[in-house]
Amino acid sequence: MRDMMFFDANCQVGLPMNGGAATATIPALLAEMDRNGVDRALVRHINIDPDGAVVTNEELAVMLANEDPAARLCGVWCILPEQCHELPPPDEFFAAMKRQRIGALTLSPGAHRWVPSRLCIGKLMDAAAERRVPVILPNYSSRWSDLYQFMADFPRNTCILANTGRWGADRAIRPLLEHYEHFHVELSTYWVPEGIKDLAELYGPERLLYGSGFPELNHGSTMLSIRHANIADAWSRLIAGGNLARLLEGAQLS
């Protein structure tokens, strides 16, 4: 079915630093996208946790420049606390993002040993909010209280929760959707019967995003869920790719 543009909000690329079966080169990702009918993808480096933000940000930019000639992929850079000066000031950082085809931010405070609070990243997050740069939140499915505090600190930021957890997260994510208008949910591990339909009706289809979880998971699973969600075609198209495209196009990196 080629009646929808699918834009994947949750992919990782790279050779795992600590081993593991999930290996994703950019050519392998693009081939899998072609096999499943996925048009574009937002990608993070698979080694952000063990290898650190600075190194993986640089490596991802090189990978995208050298291995994605059709520019179907958009990168995600990881942020760190401002006080250690490992990243440039916000104006320089966002200008570099634009040059390197990076469209969103992420963070991994547990692995990188810092507290995701306004004290640590307030200036950078405020600059991201002003520029409407999306922030991917990938590691919160077992730490809901931390996520609630993060959203309370940064209610103006466009945030996308990736990996909701596979055993039902509605009681955790629905209050966030209700109270924070810029909070979005990526659906790769949202496996709730009739759940997509219910969330779309309650909070709007604009808040939901197609994602695969590649390479741990495959592209087709969430595609099937969206196609059979029993919602209007226009809503399906938004969730499949329209929402993410709108969020990334709305960012003002310069």
Automatic annotation (TrEMBL):
Ranges of residues in domain Amidohydrolase-related: 88-248
Molecular function as annotated in GO: hydrolase activity
Gene3D superfamilies: Metal-dependent hydrolases (3.20.20.140)
Xref: InterPro entries: Amidohydro-rel, Metal_Hydrolase
Record's protein name: Amidohydrolase-related domain-containing protein
Organism: Oligosphaera ethanolica
